[in-house]
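Incident log, structure service

09:12 report received: a user says their structure output differs between two submissions of the same chain.
09:20 pulled the input from the user's history:
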Amino acid sequence: MVNAFSFACTACGKCCNSPPSMTLAELFRHRDLFIGCLAIARVPRRREGERLRVRGHGTVLDAADIAAFDSIAQTLLHRAGDTFSITTQGYDYPSVGRCPALEEDGRCAIHFARKPVTCEVVPLDPLVPDRLQHLVLAARNQSGAYFGANCIHEGEHADAALLVSDGHVVDASALDALTRRRSALAKEREVWGRAVFESLREDLFNSPAALARIPADGFLTISIVPAILAVASTSERCRQLCVDYIDSQIALIGRSVQQALLRRRLDDRPVTQELRGFANAYQRAKALLAVPLAAESRCSDASFASNVEMYLSGAAN
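09:34 re-ran on a clean worker, output below:
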């Protein structure tokens, strides 16, 4: 059975059909381009002996596979009965059908301006162990979203770089991007993820009715404000950075909604309602952050506070 795949980006834009998953630091950097939100998804817990199959490709998970999944969960994910991912990402009207950074000629406007690391990871999945990345590629190769892209090939291919083979990511640049994306997700968990998880535990993760809102094969989007408030309380500098971000986001949401109203599409209305909810949440957060932090309200760990400040300002990523 073939478990080797090659990949060659054809710049067709098929994987640029929506805003990408981004770190909070990346959203701060591109605050005038991407509307930020929180995306919450269930991540299946795997069991030894479980069979994973993707149309002609498959494997039976062994103890090493489960250990690899558990390692990812412990460093990148959150557990409350089920396992969940909580990430920040860009948000836009699905009817637009393109990433906000995609220009009319099909090129990425931020390709050379520190584009999100997750874009470099495509078509791999940082939440899947390296040994099983061939199943990720097999699924995407047969996905309707990639139909006609002609970028993923089974086995070695003359016009494509060998990406995975024999349970390893063998392309050096792909492996580097995968490593950096996982490191970024671990950093996000440290900086704001755990705090947001705890703040949402009672109203979401401990509520079966609320959890039912998370689609089985997708994610729940909510306002990014819980993450903003988590980092804003770290230091006075972080509070100022967050207020600046909020101002940019309120303006961007206003422009996005105005453009949607001009399109006059019925299927845009739920998104417009959600965006207005985001804007209202930002206004409430801005009111909370209007007053400088009292000394006793700031993080007592000066090193951690400095780390977060550099992270949000883009000096360290």
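09:41 both user submissions now match this output. Likely a transient worker issue. Closing.
09:42 reviewer note: The chain is about 45% helix and 15% strand. The longest strand covers residues 82-91.
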